[in-house]
Task: structure prediction
Amino acid sequence: MRTLRAWWSRIAGFVRHKAGERDFADELESHINLHVDDNIRAGMTPDEARRQALARLGGVTGASEAHRDRRGLPGLDAFVVDLKLGGRMLVKYPGLTMVAGFAMAVAIGVGATAFEAISAILDPTLPFAGGDRVVELEFVGADPSSAEQQVIHDFAALRGALTTVEHVSAYRTAQHNLIAEGIAPEPVVVAEITPTAFAITDTPALRGRYLMPSDEADDASPAVVIGYQAWQVRFGGDPDVVGRTVRLSGVPRTVVGVMPEGFKFPIDHQFWIPLRVDPLQFPRWEGPSISMFGRLAPNVTMAQAQAEFAAVAQRTAVAHPESGQPLRPVITPYTQVIEDPFVQWLMRAGQLFVGVLTVVVAINLAILVYARTVTRLGEIAVRTALGASRRRILAQLFSEALVLTLMGAVAGLGLARYALGRIQALNDADGGLAFWITFDLSPAAIMFALGLAAMSAFIMGVLPGLKATRVGVTTHLHELHGRSGTRLGATWTMLIVAQVAVAVAALPPAVFIASRVIRMELAGAGFPVESIVAGYVGLSPDASPADRDRLAVQQRELLTRLAAEPGVTSVGLSSNMPGFASTRRIRFADGVRARTSTDYIPDVGITDAFLPSMTRVGVDAFDTFGAEIEAGRRFAAADVGATNVIVNRSFADTYLLEANPLGLMFRYESKDPKTAAVWYQIVGVVRDFPAFPLNFQRESEPTIYHAIAIGDVARPLVSVRFAGAAPPAFINRFRSVVAEVDPALQATDVGVMVDLYKTLRAALRSLAWAAALVTTSVLLLSAAGIYALMSFTVAQRRREIGIRMALGAPPQRVVRSVFGRAAWQVSAGVAVGSLLSAGFFVAIGLGVAAAIPLLLTVAALMALVALLATLGPTRRGLRIQAIEALRAEG
Result:
């Protein structure tokens, strides 16, 4: 109890530090006055009386220090003082503060973003009670990452046999056209699900009810449950939505409930209808693809559930020996998105890697801190002579570095939060990931960032301090007179080489990315994207054979109706959005003067590497996209199904040496002899659209166009062009016309093309800014490292420089002699970095030749940076006078 009271007193003394100091000072002054009065009565003068009183008490300073040691937390007090000193040091060295703070902010921001993103994918949990006990039941074969989903018979058996897993459920995802009064028809993703799944989540409906087992019956009225987001966006938050009738792919269904906000189970769904599948209609291992899941019963482990699952599956397999499927039953956590252990390990290694990158930045910054620490060796020597221990000095250096790294951590966490917010916004817009995967700064990510800050502070403060305090007090005292015995070792100087190499390696890719973004901004799309509304139109996966037979009739009617809409000037078909085609390898006919691969893909070592994009278009598509024919002719009806093709300008300029490409022949390389035997003739050359390549690996986008007829493509891109800017309201009209033609048709990704290209440009700009941030931090680190090296060299060779200048040595010779080593280090870094950067360009298929101009530019830039970094130290060195250098050595 006494020890507890003592610690409580110390804590109270630390918290009430100033009040305690005042109280003690008042009490001490009262004791001094009492002794002064006694001394005066003994016949002393007032001054002598006070001096004797202070001597009797042992000195005010000593008494105050003893009081602090007894009443406060000395170690914490010293730490707070060191932090305040660290703040003053940030102001004293603004250059180091800005460079190191920026580098730490970028490093910790990247590290925290990667840590949180990987953790969100590898360690998620379902956001409802018992979510961590929901499991997935699968049958896997030789490839554990690919599960068999045609398991409707096994689901029927497991549903009544498993006792270790409750509420065994199943679902499949389908796309249906949503048609309702007052709503533009639109395809929506629907979960056909067993109602028992709602019992797993134990989440009540916000309005109405969720699906019940009675909804599975064949004679039950078709029902649908909608999500909160769908209720707000598609139904305008209608309070009377429960009871409304909607049509999903032509089937009328009654809305029976609305689920609460955030509920999107099982993946990212907003519509739920009962799963009605009869196993007796299909042979075993056939039928619709479904996913099975359930919740572990109370007090049941995963291993127990796995054992029972295997036993039930074995009994089912014995009862049906005719299936002959060698599949293994496996239970996994429901939220386990990445099932391959090797991929999981790679992602964990990625988390470690980004942490190591931060450590590397801290090691680089330690060079700068060490150079600053060397200038404070005199101060350290005085403190050591006055009794400060090496441990106390190291604690001070650590605290000073901690202030800097914590400042970087705060800024880095701000960057991470912004980046994660952008990632989450993209995921919300695209719906590409499961609803339980969210990207936001978690406490774990914040602790990770703070841990990196503490580790970096240790590297930046303690490691240089250990080296600086390794020699004796006498040696350090020489620093007060300008005599330095400290040396910048090989490890530290090699780190500067590494800094320069990383900067040179990072700059060309960053400049390359930025140049592509600038090129896209300047070139524009190359066709009137603001006048075109486009969307993919096709049948749902569950469409009947009769629906597929009517495809050509449906497409023709759709084009006719769209062309009749007010303001529409043309309508065209194509197999894909401009710029998003796949590549095909081709071979030109003998006698065609084509470039070799090294002419446009240098140093790749591929013979006849002709890989243009291939796309199919309707005969009127070029008019719709406003693409001008530069040579030859347009497509005609006779070209449909024929071997006549049109190529774009990039195709002719990239692959051909012929002045006139018209009439030249080529074929596609294929393992199919029939396909490989067909020769195609170029009958026209069209202007590039889009005007820039969407693939960073390509300087241009060589493209081949084939003519198609209506009905040749099951899910074509339908593009509608207006005389002026396309009205945004036409997007809903587009969907309505599609539904009017046939409810089985689905229109997806409908929008004005300008919005698509704006989104693409925004994504590329974000990439360019990220590359610029990282590259700038690396470049600043390199420049600061070179500056520190030069400054250290000048201080180290001050006497030599002064004597050589006094003896008449030319300034350029002195500079060459003193800074030759640093120049060698910069040159070595440039050479190593150029090799790494060239490897990047080879890896993306552009070759070394494409990188040479950038590499030369970056090498010149790095030389300029090194020159500017050495300018200040060089001027200081040339101003050294011999008499001053010798006096400093005396």
Remarks:
- Confidence is low (pLDDT under 50) at residues 473-486, 598-608.
